[in-house]
Amino acid sequence: MKNSERYQRGLDKLAKIDGEQGQKVIDSLADIAPDFAQYLIEFPFGDIYSRPGLDLKSREIAVVAALTALGNAAPQLKVHIHGALNVGCTEQEIVEVIMQMAVYAGFPAALNGLFAAKEVFAERGKVSNRGDGSL
Amino acid sequence: MKNSERYQRGLDKLAKIDGEQGQKVIDSLADIAPDFAQYLIEFPFGDIYSRPGLDLKSREIAVVAALTALGNAAPQLKVHIHGALNVGCTEQEIVEVIMQMAVYAGFPAALNGLFAAKEVFAERGKVSNRGDGSL
Amino acid sequence: MKNSERYQRGLDKLAKIDGEQGQKVIDSLADIAPDFAQYLIEFPFGDIYSRPGLDLKSREIAVVAALTALGNAAPQLKVHIHGALNVGCTEQEIVEVIMQMAVYAGFPAALNGLFAAKEVFAERGKVSNRGDGSL
Amino acid sequence: MKNSERYQRGLDKLAKIDGEQGQKVIDSLADIAPDFAQYLIEFPFGDIYSRPGLDLKSREIAVVAALTALGNAAPQLKVHIHGALNVGCTEQEIVEVIMQMAVYAGFPAALNGLFAAKEVFAERGKVSNRGDGSL
Amino acid sequence: MKNSERYQRGLDKLAKIDGEQGQKVIDSLADIAPDFAQYLIEFPFGDIYSRPGLDLKSREIAVVAALTALGNAAPQLKVHIHGALNVGCTEQEIVEVIMQMAVYAGFPAALNGLFAAKEVFAERGKVSNRGDGSL
Amino acid sequence: MKNSERYQRGLDKLAKIDGEQGQKVIDSLADIAPDFAQYLIEFPFGDIYSRPGLDLKSREIAVVAALTALGNAAPQLKVHIHGALNVGCTEQEIVEVIMQMAVYAGFPAALNGLFAAKEVFAERGKVSNRGDGSL
User: Fold this and answer.
1) Distance in angstroms (rounded) separating the CA atoms of residues B113 and A91
2) CA-wise closest residue to B86 among B56, B54, B46
């Protein structure tokens, strides 16, 4: 199955969206549930993210919104804040999406989402060596 | 306070996004918590939806995603599926957003979101206008 | 066990807090899970509600807040709005508790809580008795 | 894809577990999101339920527990109470699973689960066949 | 806007309820979403907490209950356990509120709430006992 | 009350299911809410887990499923993964239960459940001194 077109399509999409964050998740499943890594590549990325009808940027906005609102999946929220930036969202757009969740899931959910974004923006600031100490 | 610029801005935004659905919510608060109707106009619509930095279509995608994922606010999900259509989302885009939630909140949440969308699309006559009575 | 002091204490407390609403819940369990009716009387009412250290009014404020915030137990929220009124909360206090949940669980949760309160207040005849349409 | 072994395996599993309830869900998706019906057959039923390593009865116990605890997917809970009975759970076992959720998700979640079970048992005629019309 | 009466009223209320914990939250938003800090002061504290009709102690009981039940906002729960103590709740009353949540949201939610309370009580015990101003 | 048959039955059941993990929870309540430790022993373990009608292995499958799906009680999920292993579940069965939750509560909930299982399996590997470094 790992040679299927669907698996390959999922792997490409995962790399495009989540970059090395996605690969880390896959790797971390290797010794506990390798089949689950395969499903994760195939269904969410090979099937859903590969569909036409909604651009990747809108898909990531939806995911950041949902994970902020649910408030019980902090690691995945951080992965998808990275993902949103990877597919073209600006930092400001992500902050706006998270702030909007104060209305629909309460201020604590939005606050925790903003602090996750702050961590992600800082990680990427370090990685991309902005060198100006901003953010 | 109801004459404030903020209240008026919220009222305009509410009308633009939620149309008559929004007004119904406001009206239904009149005899139980009229102040809450004012807050609803002022903070979500006067403050948050009125911010630059994210277009209304993306804001409604975020809200449809979050309410689908939370799964405990069916009336508000329907209002915001209307809202998403009002600000320019296509039916297909809304269906894609909701389907994506299967990955992040499970198939039951996505199914219930799709059935809400089906009701809203029917209410708006889009489906029944197809002339085949298939809904 | 149904003759135990703990069971009797729970039954008294249930009657005092939830009145006929509580008895209806107990009755509705008779043919599906009668033991669960017993646990419901013994643990929540015989143990928890019977503790000193927090007055019944504050306990009901806590319960109305939690059920509004969780948003997935509408029948129980209505029972406890009745309960809050039964132990001395005013309608205004209940409305304030529910409105406060907009901050902590979002506006949809608060809206659905307010509509539940509106139904309960109407059931109790407060609204229809006033004769002037105001709450 | 609908001719794939995976799709066919999913369809067989869906029929075995959910019976006509499952088919109704599939049918209801036909005019809103037919692709989602396909995913529902392929991933949950073709992939997950078809795995060795855990018997179907245990899988349905897990699902009834989770949906009772989440408390925001009443239609799917009812489908899976049917499913649990279809794959060999007794009514008593289902009642025990739901009662256990009082400990992990609270009494309201368990109560609403028990009332869902009561409806399902009645639909299947088990209770009404007792001949005393007591439900 | 920061000079408005509403903002000032919110700032005063925030200081009274959350003390230095609240200021820390405001400060931590400065470089990610300063507007959100303003909304947090204005809507929850300037509008909601400033309303008559429910005393501050009851409002904090409601918030501690809701955040314990939701179980997905540990930092905010700790801030509001501080807040409850700041506006006159006793440690015993807070423990009773949290224990009550075992009934409505399950034992795990109550346990995690009790452990949060234990941390807060210890932090305050250290502060007030040490006399050296260190936390 | 601590000498009651119910308390003793609960204590025995707790020891059988949760082993030293359960005792740690009880101990950690001693200085914050000792009565809650008693309730925890009496109601969940003395009443619910002690009921006939569902074997302990199925009860733990239900609990691992529910806590994975809820996603907001990581410490308790780990205790019950231990518990499931203690009453006869295999590591594979637990992994299957958690993977199944991807369908009902989303991939993030399942991923976080799998990582919790990975930690528990490693802890037990260390404790039982397998000496081969295998998971």
Assistant:
1) 29
2) B56
Take residue C17 and report the two structure tokens written for it: 């807090």
Nearest residue of D to residue F48 by CA position?
D100
In chain A, residues with a C-beta closer than 8 Å to the C-beta of C103 are: 106-107
Report the residue of D79, D100, D114 to disrupt the F interface, i.e. the one with the largest count of F CBs within 10 Å: D100
pLDDT, tens only, E58-78: 999 999 999 999 999 999 999
For F100-122, b/e burial (b = at least 16 CB within 10 A) is: bbbbbbbbbbbbbbbbbbbebbe
C89-124 burial, b for 16+ CB within 10 Å, e for fewer? Answer: bebebbbbbbbbbbbbbbbbbbbbbbbbbbebbeee
Please give the single-letter amino acid code of residue D31: D
- From the list F95, F98, F109, the residue facing A73 with the nearest CB is F109
Question: D118, D112, D101, D99: which is closest to C75 by C-alpha?
Answer: D112
CA–CA dist D73, B101 (Å, integer): 14
Say yes or no: E72 contacts chain B, CB-CB below 8 A. no
Q: What is the pLDDT of residues D111-134, one digit of tens each?
A: 999 999 999 999 998 544 443 433
- What's the predicted TM-score (pTM) here? 0.94
**Structure ipTM:** 0.92
- CB-based contact (8 Å) between A105 and chain F? no
Question: Which residues of chain F neighbour C2 with C-beta distances below 8 Å?
Answer: none
CA angle (D5 as vertex; D3, D10 as ends), nearest 5: 95
Residue E53 CA to residue C28 CA, distance in Å, equals 36
CB contact under 8 A, B73 and C134: no
pLDDT, one tens digit per residue, over C53-96 is: 999 999 999 999 999 999 999 999 999 999 999 999 999 999 99
Handedness of CA C42, E99, E51, A99 (dihedral sign): negative
What type of residue sits at position E134? Answer: S
Collapsing DSSP to helix, strand or coil, E105 comes out as helix
Q: Which residues of B touch A44 (CB under 8 A)?
A: 103
Mutation choice for E interface testing from A72, A93, A107, A132 by most E CBs within 10 A: A107
Neighbours of chain A (3+ CB pairs under 8 A): B, C, D, E, F
| Contact flag D108-C76 (C-beta cutoff 8 Å) | yes
Name the residue facing B32 among C102, C118, C133 (closest C-beta). C118
User: Which of A97, E69, B72 minimizes the C-alpha distance to C106?
Assistant: B72
Q: Are F39 and F4 in contact (CB under 8 A)?
A: no
- Please report, as a single letter, which amino acid is at residue A55: D
Residue type, B92: Q
CB distance from C67 to chain D under 8 Å?
Answer: yes
* Whole-number Å distance between alpha carbons of B48 and C102: 15
Other beta carbons less than 10 A from residue B7's beta carbon:
16
A108/C104 CB distance under 8 A: yes
Q: C36 by DSSP, 3-state: which?
A: helix
Report which residue type is found at B133.
Answer: G
Q: How many residues does chain F have?
A: 135
Sequence-distant (6+) residues with CB within 8 A of E102 are: C48, D106, E109, E110, F36, F39
C111 interaction partners in chain B (CB closer than 8 Å): 25, 29, 36, 40, 75-76
Contact yes or no for E84/E64 (Cβ under 8 A): yes
Q: Is D73 on the interface with B (CB under 8 A)?
A: yes
Cβ contact C105–A106 (<8 Å):
yes
In which band, very low, low, confident or very high, does the pLDDT at D2 lie, cut at 50, 70 and 90?
A: confident
Cα gap C47→A21, rounded to integer Å: 48
Alpha helical stretches, state H, E2-106: 5-28, 34-40, 56-70, 74-86, 91-105
A25 neighbors A79 (Cβ within 8 angstroms): yes
d(CA A27, CA E45): 45
